[in-house]
Amino acid sequence: MPFFNYLPAYELNRSPRIIAAFDTDFLRNLDAFRRSLPQGKPFTMLLQTGWSVLVPRFAEELKSGMAQAHRLFPEARIVFLVNEKEAIPILKDSAECVWCHQNAFLDPGRYPLAKGARQFDAIYVARITPFKRHALAAKVPNLHLVGAHSIPETDYFNEIMHTVPHARWDEKVNSWLVGRHMAKASCGLALSSIEGAMFVCGEYSLCGLPVVNTKNIGGRDLMLPEFSEFKAEDTPESVAEGVEHWKSNPVPPQEIREAFLRIASEHRAVLDDLLASIAGRRVKIPHKLGIRCRLLFHQKLLHGIRQNNKGRI
């Protein structure tokens, strides 16, 4: 069977065509999308925001990219699925905007509930890069870190490993198994001050883990059950205090999971209704909308968009 390259997108519905992609994955590959999608045939593009648009530089990048996208795809209806309500007035002149949080589209079946004694005090699943602020976990005594690092950031990685020599570190965990690792910890850490909505934060909640969370923009707080969040200051001492709080004051994992799913159901209903209004029927919503996650071969064949490097089709 021939080998195909696929665009960073997922076809949710074939007729009428509905495509999901992360905003930058689409906007930074506009030429490839234009070559690979039939010109003149209407379609809907749902764009998940991957970073906080409250950051002016990022918002301007999106607006500039959207101006070009509208020129290249006059036949497209483009809709932003934003994680922060505050993003709507920023982006509404560039495209339609709907408040529809990405963490609502995690598949609960992938995440087992934490049970029994915990092997670790805390787990932090995050690429080891400066914006994730791993140094804030330096005083957590029994820590599990999961995350790779890029070659250009090797010096930073070595610095962090020197800061947390007591931590267990796994460079990579299979995405299907990450929930099992989370279920071995008393709580999860969310330490960045700026990013997107942080899928991992939702994964913690599905496993029934409370979270030690720092002040941030990006939208992750909006899906956290209030009773399972410790608001930490930006210091290692405060983060360690939060971890100790959850060790001493455990919350039944099932209560956290159920509370998260209640919040998620509201956002799933928004997307369900949007998709039904376009397709004329209910459309199956895959794990993470099928984007930036590993797809099986048959899923690529059924829902992937083959990249055409020769010209428009």
Q: What descriptive keywords fit this protein?
A:
alpha/beta; five-stranded mixed β-sheet; about 325 residues
Provide an overview of this structure.
- The protein is α/β, with parallel strands linked by helices and 313 residues long.
- It contains 10 helices and 11 strands.
- The two termini are 21 Å apart.
- The model has no long low-confidence stretch (mean pLDDT 95).
As a whole number of angstroms, the C-alpha radius of gyration is 20 Å
Question: Order of strands in the sheet with the most strands?
Answer: 1-2-3-4-5
Number of helices: 10
The coarse silhouette is: globular
Termini Cα gap: 21 Å
Strand content bin: 15-25%
Order of helices and strands: EEHHEHEHEEEHEHEHEEHHH
The poorly predicted ranges are none
How many beta-strand segments? 11
Give the biggest sheet: 5 strands, mixed
How would you concisely characterize the structure shown here?
Strand 4 (76-82), helix 4 and strand 5 (96-99) form a beta-alpha-beta unit. The radius of gyration is 20 Å and the shape is globular.
SSE blueprint:
Elements (H helix, E strand, L loop, with lengths): L9 E4 L4 E5 H5 L2 H7 L6 E6 L7 H17 L3 E7 L4 H5 L4 E4 L22 E4 L17 E4 L7 H10 L4 E3 L7 H5 L5 E3 L8 H8 L4 E4 L14 E4 L3 H13 L4 H27 L17 H7 L10
